Amino acid sequence: MNPPQNDSKSTHNTGVDGGALTDGVRRALEVTLRGCEELLPQTDWVQKLSRAEASGQPLRIKLGLDPTAPDIHIGHTVVLNKMRQLQDLGHQVIFLIGDFTSLIGDPSGRNNTRPPLTSEQIKANAETYYKQASLVLDPSKTEIRYNSEWSLPLGSMGMIQLAAKYTVARMMERNDFHDRFKAGTPISVHEFLYPLMQGYDSVALKSDLELGGTDQKFNLLMGRHLQTEYGQEPQCILTMPLLEGLDGVEKMSKSKNNYIGITEEANTMFAKVLSISDTLMWRWYTLLSFKSMAEIEALKREVEEGRNPKDAKVMLAKEITTRFHSAAAADAAEQDFINRSKGGVPDQIPEAQVSGAPMGVAALLKAVGLAASTGEGNRLIEGGGVRVDSSVVSDKGLKLGAGTYVLQVGKRKFAKVTLA
């Protein structure tokens, strides 16, 4: 009943038959380990790779995501990138949408019970998940599944039999459960079902490798345990680090407003990537770029030898923007950024018509949505962050007569206004 022992990421040089690794297996192992936090057990993964190469049978690689929100940000794509790298090696990737497990609610890392989503919310969110994931994965080579396929038919009898395969004592070793129990914070019985059901997904899919964030390690190990219980060869697990956001400190999160949404418009995406620190840039290269590590190391050496780090950052910004938009959009975003940095006006900006001339600048900013209120507009003027036709406005009492003006707030907010 005990979970498998955690193996380290130490390097192994022997294959399934005890002989030396082939170049293909060594390359596949290198790709697997790139940027990962843990690969457990690595010896088992090497054996699986060697067997797959010898038989020509691709390995089954699983990633499960619960559709808890309608959109994903580039922090979520760290594991998707790893899936794509393994997909490009010829293995079968399975994008699993947790429409059933979302009804339970993942307790990972929580200090209270996570409210389960309604079936309507899950359906609405799931509709966008795969479409967005396909911007990273090759959809023609991706198997998409929903865990309601096998979870619903399991029924009450099957659920009881599944629950008998793990003990409460082992479940309580999980950090979030242990901490909540010690603090007297309620733990609902249904929360114990989440790791069991996620682990059962691996049984249903006969997965060879499951990917997840570092916060998912307990659930991933559960898959190994249950596969053994059901007489299957246990999967290996690969955890990827949680990506730091734009601030370089906290993990990327919408709630912390340090994220880049993969559906954000190209100019914003490009500019946000350029805003990260030179140090964080290299970590993003490792986790987000499709360049080889040899290419990244060569670029890093060039910067260390005097090349402007901004050149490398622009390359990263263009690669990420191209992935989620197009090469043309990335080129246009780069030019837009150059124009803005020189105080220029982008080619395409929102247009509005407002009546009430003459009108104070702060009131006009509010009218076109560049400020939440007249008071905020005045504060922006006081801070020197407002321009009218490229000239900084310093007088809060300035009123504009009838005419057409280009308003600018900060570096990235513009509006072309016709005031009548």
From TrEMBL:
Annotated segments matching region Disordered: 1-21
Function: Catalyzes the attachment of tyrosine to tRNA(Tyr) in a two-step reaction: tyrosine is first activated by ATP to form Tyr-AMP and then transferred to the acceptor end of tRNA(Tyr).
Oligomer status and interactors: Homodimer.
Residue ranges annotated as motif 'KMSKS' region: 251-255
InterPro entries: aa-tRNA-synth_I_CS (IPR001412), aa-tRNA-synth_Ic (IPR002305), Rossmann-like_a/b/a_fold (IPR014729), S4_RNA-bd_sf (IPR036986), Tyr-tRNA-ligase (IPR002307), Tyr-tRNA-ligase_bac-type (IPR024088), Tyr-tRNA-ligase_bac_2 (IPR024108)
Residues binding ATP, per UniProt: 254
Family stated for the protein in its record: Belongs to the class-I aminoacyl-tRNA synthetase family. TyrS type 2 subfamily.
Domain of life: Bacteria
Upper taxonomic lineage: Bacteria, Pseudomonadati, Pseudomonadota, Betaproteobacteria, Burkholderiales
Protein name as catalogued: Tyrosine--tRNA ligase
KW Ion transport (keyword) present: no
Sequence motif 'HIGH' region, residues: 67-76
Recorded GO MF terms: tyrosine-tRNA ligase activity
Catalytic activity: tRNA(Tyr) + L-tyrosine + ATP = L-tyrosyl-tRNA(Tyr) + AMP + diphosphate + H(+)
Coiled coil: none
PROSITE patterns according to UniProt: AA_TRNA_LIGASE_I, S4
Biased composition (Polar residues): 1-14
Cell compartment(s), UniProt: Cytoplasm
EC number: 6.1.1.1
